[in-house]
Write a structure and sequence with these properties.
heterodimer; A: 191 residues; alpha/beta; two-stranded antiparallel ribbon; 8 helices; B: 178 residues; 6-stranded parallel beta sheet
Chain lengths: 191, 178
Amino acid sequence: MAMKPEEVLRAIAAARGDAICVPTMTTSPAWRTIAPDDLSVGCTGFMGGASSLGLGLALAMPKRRVVVFDGDGSLLMQLGSLATIAGARPRNLTHLLFKNGVYHTSGAQEIPGGLSVDFVEMAKGAGYRKAYAVTDFDDFKRRLPSMLSDEGPLLVELHTGLADKTPMTDRGGLSFNQQIDNLRKRLDTAG
Amino acid sequence: MPESIPAPLIIDTLKDTFREARGTSTREPLGWILSVPDTHQKTVLAALDKERALRVVTCATEDEANAVAAGLWIGGEPCVLMIQHAGLYASVNTLRGVAMDGRVPIFYLIGLLSREKDRDLKDSRHSMVRFAEPLLDTFGVPHARLEGPDDVHRIPEYYRLSRERRGPTAVLVGLETI
């Protein structure tokens, strides 16, 4: 049975420490409820950019863990970022891929290739240090500490069901530039 | 008539720009170059390969480069995007979403591949040359031309402007660098 995205996010929130998190699309509404802090920045308004945004953060702050909550449809929009990330070799980047096989926000149309798309093999082929899939919540909880500490770049394909909310059914939250300002203040990089 | 600019002059200017941005910080690298390879600026890219003070991240697409720039800026790191006009056209939604709506200062060095030496941009035979400035104007992106070595001061000037206005600015590299 597929994992519930909200359960996964709650477990991450409890274990993340001071990691910067980068949600996108259907993880965004749940994450801002579960972790309403300023140590996150959502990829909003440029679908597909979460992995690259996370890469920039990871390169800028090499002593801090950066965790991207990507979507399968989102990653397909900038699939080349797997190679870009692998080439830059950020040791502190954890790339979590919430795989549900559909574009949930626009009505759950199947992504190209559906659930058969193997992002683990793609990440390995691109040159990620490690990539594996997790299908079971107990296994996820067991492996979470290493996901947050193993040398990156690391991709974990999480087999999840649909989130309760999407950015279309729950439109709240701060704008991208407000999130950026808050995070810069929190990181003390605002100058 | 426009003139080609030597790669070392551009790289030295980028270093000075980053030094100014860093202020008293001695953090390394001095600055970041986010590049999607551009034939027009290939001598600069080749020289950057041997440059230790600057770190180059080669991106697969300009969309990625914009998003990486946002992450670097959030983390307090200075960067410059080196792309080609075709890449500008390919990534306008990300420019809009990241640099404009996100108010992320992004400075672009944009190569005008196929720009003719004897024609103004607006009279070029090539649409990719002709449309660069009108596109930037449509999006309200301040821009300037590098028409020769005397224009390299535009690099720090427009880098600074991107920070002051918290948005995108661009300098267009007129002729192929040497």
